[in-house]
Amino acid sequence: MTRHQRIIKAIISSVIAAAVIYLSVYFRPLDKVLEERQLNTFRPQEYARYYWEHVLAVEAKQAIDAAVLIDSLKSNPDNVFIQYGKTLGISDMSNFIMKGHGQVTAVIEEFMELRLCNSDNILKLKTGMVFGNILRDCTGSIRMDDFRNSMDFNNISVEINKIVNTEIIPRLRQKLMPDDFVYFEGAAGIMKGFADSVTIELIPVRIILTNDCKQK
Amino acid sequence: MKKSISILKITLFLGLFTFTAGCIQSRNKISEEKQKIAVVISTLNNSWFVVLGETASAKAKELGYEVVLFDSQNNTAKETEHFENIIAAGYTAILFNPTDAEGSVVNVMSARKAGIPTFCMDREINATDAAVSQILSDNYSGCVRLGEYFVQKLNKRGKYVELLGLVGDNNTWNRSRGFHSVVDNFPDLKMVAQQSADFDRSKAMEVMESMLQAHPDINAVFCGNDAMAMGAYQALLSADMADEVMVFGFDGAEDVINSIRSKKIMATGMQFPKKMAITAAEYANAYIKGKRDFQQKVPIEVELVNQENIDKYKPYDKSE
Fold this sequence. Notes:
The complex is a heterodimer. Chain A has helices at 3-24, 30-40, 44-61, 66-75, 77-84, 134-137, 150-175, and strands at residues 64-65, 93-107, 111-116, 122-126, 181-191, 201-210. By secondary structure, chain A is of the alpha/beta class.
């Protein structure tokens, strides 16, 4: 091989090597990669906050009156479950949103007993830790099918419950005393077949102290 | 002459009629032969899954299908082999209990590509575009209820250990997270050890024995299924600690329901394997008959069974 041929061979080899390196390695801005990764990561905390402020709060304001709901559960439970209940999958339990006025009649360890205004009906207002999926499922607007795996779906409940457990319940425990009047919005799970015999345990979404039964 | 033509016409007509009827009959026979449903179960080495598989098979047979039951022996490779055979044999539908949330996706996708609809039972796969529908226990909510009962029974304080199921199965983590979403809020309840025993009774016994050597002062054990609860109870019995340590399971299996009745085990989460299997078989039948709008994930409620309400339940179901 002549000197000339060796130079040509070296040039061709260098070009091939450079092409291989160039094609096998590429650089992208780090912020773009992080942004893409975040888009693929489900963030239950943000999802829960949005749901709490823009879905649950709105639906709770428009919910059925608790006294009307309880009376209807006694007289026509099947119809009430169909009309107002939200059920996840196959279950005997349905979730309901309700609102109303009441007076605190007793403070028990994990509950406050609430007598509804202009009614003989009693509610248990939860003041202990809130667990489970009632707040997530009561509006029927979060669909399990929209989540690739059920852990993401369940993490929404964890985050919604955190909001109630840290922002609503401690204030409730501090402020409410027996004989106080309140306006309330909340959610409860009710089992079919037990609707007229069990006192509803309401998870608070919004509680406002009032001067009497009518004032909001 | 005219008479012989008429006889010829009648003969031809009868021949044609017989031929057509024969064709229809043989086509019906072929389509009847094609109506086969495969029931693929993660393991038949656990009575709970035996109930799931046998109920699905019985319901599919009742609906008029020929049924073959496959055991994946908790092995994804074995499961893949079953799917290859099912696809090659041209089954009409698959009622499927997966071995692995990620690993089983490829099998369901293969079936889908081959035009065979799959209906998952009890265990989830990490895909929403592979199976037609997934009928699942609401493990998370069930374990929230178990967690609340656990806190109540331990009076909010004490040491406990947790036996996890298969780490690749979403049910393992949904159960564990549901339980911890409650229990972790009580700082005086301390988990001193957490280990997988693969949903297996013998492994649970071994794991529990070594846990008891390291932590002889525990008050309770939370197990991700009933087989592990029975294994843990066996280990406690051998260590003469069965009266001091509360055992909590999950499934509603026969031996645990009997053990709750005899006050050996505190509580379990009642899954309804028969309800899941029957729903899956009915969905498959509806799909074969033309229905297409199925909910992708259908959770089935899990109920708390304890020593106070045990009379309302029997193994794998509610009392009549």
